[in-house]
Amino acid sequence: MNEDKTVDWKAMIDKLELYSGTIKDFCKENNIAEKKFYYHRRKLSDTNKVVFHEIPLKSESNPAASNNNTSDIKIVIGKATIYILANEIAALTAIVRNLSSSV
Predict the structure, then answer these.
(1) Model confidence over 51-94: pLDDT tens digits?
(2) Which residues fall within 8 angstroms of residue 88, CB to CB, at 6 or more apart?
(3) Per-residue DSSP letter, 23
(4) In angstroms, rounded to a whole number, what is the distance separating the alpha carbons of residues 65 and 101?
(5) Cα torsion for 36, 40, 41, 42, to the nearest 10°?
(6) Who contacts 10 (Cβ-Cβ below 8 Å, separation ≥6)?
(7) Which of 34, 48, 67, 82 could form an S-S bond across to 75 if both were Cys, CB 3.0 to 4.6 Å?
(8) Distance between CA atoms of residues 21 and 27, nearest Å
């Protein structure tokens, strides 16, 4: 078990979890260099880390649909168009509640 290629490091690390002794003793019993064990344990744990990837979004501007007041909310249902100020939370809540109950 001296070569890295012949050792199943995932199985070896899982085996350590059941071992009651120290890592040093575990490595001696399994003929593994302690440094190699730590290296492969860290390498395997690094593969499970979640990494944040930012995805830039392109904004699609439609000049015909744009409104000069960007704080307005526009609701279009069929031929009806409703404009609500974004800070009119009570009105917006009532409209959304009525729309969701009628669906």
Answers:
(1) 777 777 776 655 555 545 566 788 788 888 878 787 777 877 88
(2) none
(3) H
(4) 28
(5) 110
(6) 44
(7) 82
(8) 10
Token pair for 51: 């990494």
Give the relative orientation of helices 34-46 and 9-18 as an angle to the nearest 10 degrees. Answer: 100
- Residue 84 pairs with which residues in a beta bridge? 73
CA distance 19 to 26: 7
Tokens of 8: 């199943």
**Would you state the torsion angle of the CA atoms of residues 43, 37, 23, 11, taken in this order, to the nearest 10 degrees?**
80
pTM confidence score? 0.41
**Total length of the chain:** 103
Tokens of 59: 């904004």
Which residue ranges make up each domain of the chain?
Answer: 4-46, 72-101
Q: For residue range 88-97, list pLDDT tens digits in order.
A: 778 778 877 8
